[in-house]
Inverse folding.
DNA sequence: CTAATCGTTCTGTAAATACCGAACGATAAG
DNA sequence: CTTATCGTTCGGTATTTACAGAACGATTAG
């Protein structure tokens, strides 16, 4: 394995570890990592299996998982009878959007907590009011934020 | 168990499931959940064990984990020879800050990927340029964002 | 000193997870 | 029709994880 290939491996593995931290299986990260630097961008399941030295079953499953996450998408078949995938345009934005939504869920939970402390001393409520504030802020700020990111993306393409 | 207690349980469990989605053990979420609605805010390990019907070992471990996450902190002992904990002021902000930092790590990884495609066609680089843009944006926007959140918090207290 | 009680840590166990290989159904080639 | 080659799915295995219980050292009360 030459130097270039090693660097690519290293990149793929970094993406894999990043994905792992984000709660995805490491193998999903590897598939994604490959599709981020592959040439051409569209690769068949077999290509991926071979390159990653991983089993068909894993790659097939992880590919569909990543499609579900909005990070990759099916691509036109270059060879007949083969499933191709490529990184999905705007995939990272979608990824961030979903993460933020998960975070923002705490907003509603905090409200329910506040109801439980209804009538109690204000000092007791501070903890949940912070949660309320932070995640309401996340929720609101984030939308304009996504909008600006999308604009920025649109200018490029 | 009366209705109030059931609602509290439900709240605690919601926090637990939220924490689980964020990659923390469910039990850590339960400890946190309890410290978000406890009266008084400071509770001893024993109090927590009893309330959650969980083992000393779990609660002890999870408490230290949450301290490490910046979500709770040791509190003055109300009873002698007991460790007290309470939700940490600004804990949620700190929590968000760390999550965002983890996300922003992709910024650097994307750059390394771009180096691998150096000299290649621009169309090949788009994927990683998106990653670069999104997470550079996350990184930069987020700081002003935190600042404004903190200001907002300061106004309250 | 002895006994009790605290928090930590080690060990064990049940459950979840990641991954692979094999079996399978579908489709296309010979 | 037969065979080869897809992708999916099922079953098994090894690893990891969450949690509890027991053992331990430290501290305080009697």
């Amino acid at each position: 394995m030459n130097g270039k290939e090693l660097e690519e491996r290293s990149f793929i593995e970094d993406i894999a570890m990043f994905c792992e931290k984000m709660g995805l299986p490491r193998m999903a990260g590897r598939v994604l990592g490959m599709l981020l630097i592959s040439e051409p961008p569209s690769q068949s399941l077999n290509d991926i299996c071979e390159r990653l030295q991983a089993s068909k079953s894993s790659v097939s499953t992880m590919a569909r998982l990543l499609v579900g996450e909005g990070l990759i998408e099916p691509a036109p078949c270059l060879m007949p009878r083969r499933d191709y995938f490529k990184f999905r345009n705007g995939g990272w934005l979608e990824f961030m959007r979903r993460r933020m939504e998960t975070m923002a869920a705490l907003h509603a939970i905090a409200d329910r907590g506040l109801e439980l402390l209804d009538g109690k001393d204000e000092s007791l409520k501070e903890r949940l009011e912070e949660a309320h504030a932070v995640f309401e802020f996340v929720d609101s700020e984030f939308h304009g934020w996504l909008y600006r990111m999308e604009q920025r993306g649109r200018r490029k393409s």
Notes: Residues 25-27, 54-58, 61, 80-81 of chain A lie near DNA strand C (CB under 10 Å from a C1'). Chain A is about 75% helix and 5% strand.
